[in-house]
């Protein structure tokens, strides 16, 4: 095992700066899984139905989540929408809401109310600057008539918009979420210190061939070329504080991932930290990374250090063991046996990982066919 030096090391619980916890039965199912993934702080996305556009809705949602996982810190966000005004920003700041999330119209799950043009929101961004709130960007351009935009270049096509927003609002803290391309990583590096980015748990593994052949690997933005995956891996462990952990864990009922137009999203929450460790190990095995590149300090910085600096969070003193993960015989659970598809089958050296859990989403109880090998 290339990363034997990490066996038994203790790290603070991770902060996951991009999660989808949904609502109703799905929320009740996935929210208690946060701690199982080595995480105790999450930045919650607001793309519910209807979207979270008011402070009252946001606080009510947070209360539901907190009741399901009282030992997790939930950082909340509003959905950028014409109903959001500078007054809303002030109210949100006073209520302890962390940020506002922008979805381009129609590019991903529940983005039907998303942004068509940013100009109408300039007064909102000015107030966010004054209130020191975070603007979270889903960084893709939607397809439009007369433009050669596809899922493969939608992120890169958005980068001029990122740079323009940063130029207009240089003190506004911006997070470009789920970077999937070398171009996006470079754009964030080129911006000033108020611009940062998240890297997911699954993009360090995936390329276009994976999601083109398997809907359970399909998400937005899509995974791209091997060169992009290499850039993601190297950035993940570079120690650059502009880049930190945000799984974009996005659960869906299995039937929506097997439909004619399958839903965008990869569910990774129960094994979040373990996937990062396994990605690094695979990076070493394939020669993308050198073993000396991977240190406890850099791993901790990615998982829980940089984001505490950017978002002014209080660092946790909890020291969970790092989960050493290896792929099982198949990446995916048999899709006709489960309701919510967990992306990777793993082993772990954790003394007890509650992964042989029962998923209850409909009235059925379905046991996950995962064999845990404790070492």
TrEMBL record:
Top-level taxon of the source organism: Eukaryota
Its EC number(s): 3.5.2.3
Molecular functions per Gene Ontology: dihydroorotase activity; metal ion binding
An individual GO BP term: 'de novo' pyrimidine nucleobase biosynthetic process
Cofactor: Zn(2+)
Domain called Amidohydrolase-related: residue spans: 11-264
Homology family: Belongs to the metallo-dependent hydrolases superfamily. DHOase family. Class II DHOase subfamily.
The name this protein goes by in its record: dihydroorotase
Native source species: Hortaea werneckii (Black yeast)
């Amino acid at each position: 095992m290339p990363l034997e030096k990490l066996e038994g090391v203790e790290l603070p619980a991770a902060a996951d700066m991009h999660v989808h916890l949904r609502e109703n039965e799905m929320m009740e199912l996935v929210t208690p899984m946060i701690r199982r993934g080595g995480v105790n702080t999450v930045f919650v996305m607001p793309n519910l139905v209807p979207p979270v556009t008011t402070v009252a809705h946001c606080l009510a949602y947070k209360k539901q989540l907190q009741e399901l996982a009282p030992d997790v810190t939930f950082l909340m966000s509003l959905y950028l929408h014409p109903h959001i005004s500078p007054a809303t920003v002030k109210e949100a700041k006073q209520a302890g809401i962390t940020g506002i999330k922008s979805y381009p119209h129609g590019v991903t799950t529940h983005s039907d109310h998303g942004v068509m043009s940013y100009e109408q929101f300039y007064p909102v961004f000015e107030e966010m600057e004054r209130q020191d709130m975070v603007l979270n960007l889903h960084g893709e351009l939607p397809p439009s008539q007369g433009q050669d935009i596809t899922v493969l270049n939608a992120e890169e096509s958005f980068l001029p918009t990122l740079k323009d927003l940063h130029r207009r609002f240089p003190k506004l803290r911006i997070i470009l979420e789920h970077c999937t391309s070398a171009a996006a990583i470079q754009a964030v590096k080129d911006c000033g210190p108020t611009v940062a980015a998240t890297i997911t748990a699954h993009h360090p593994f995936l390329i276009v061939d994976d999601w083109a052949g398997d809907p359970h690997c399909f998400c937005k933005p899509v995974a791209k070329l091997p060169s992009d995956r290499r850039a993601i891996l190297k950035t993940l462990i570079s120690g650059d504080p502009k880049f930190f952990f945000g799984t974009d864990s996005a659960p869906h009922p299995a039937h929506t991932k097997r439909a004619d137009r399958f839903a965008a999203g990869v569910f990774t929450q129960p094994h979040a930290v373990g996937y990062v460790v396994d990605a690094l190990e695979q990076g070493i095995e394939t020669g993308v990374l050198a073993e000396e590149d991977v240190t406890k300090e850099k791993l901790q910085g990615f998982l829980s250090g940089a984001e505490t600096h950017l978002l002014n969070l209080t660092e946790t003193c909890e020291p969970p063991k790092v989960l050493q993960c290896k792929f099982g015989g198949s990446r995916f659970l048999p899709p006709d046996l489960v309701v919510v598809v967990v992306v990777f089958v793993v082993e772990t050296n954790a003394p007890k990982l509650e992964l042989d859990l029962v998923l209850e989403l409909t009235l059925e109880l379905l046991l996950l066919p995962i064999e845990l090998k404790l070492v």
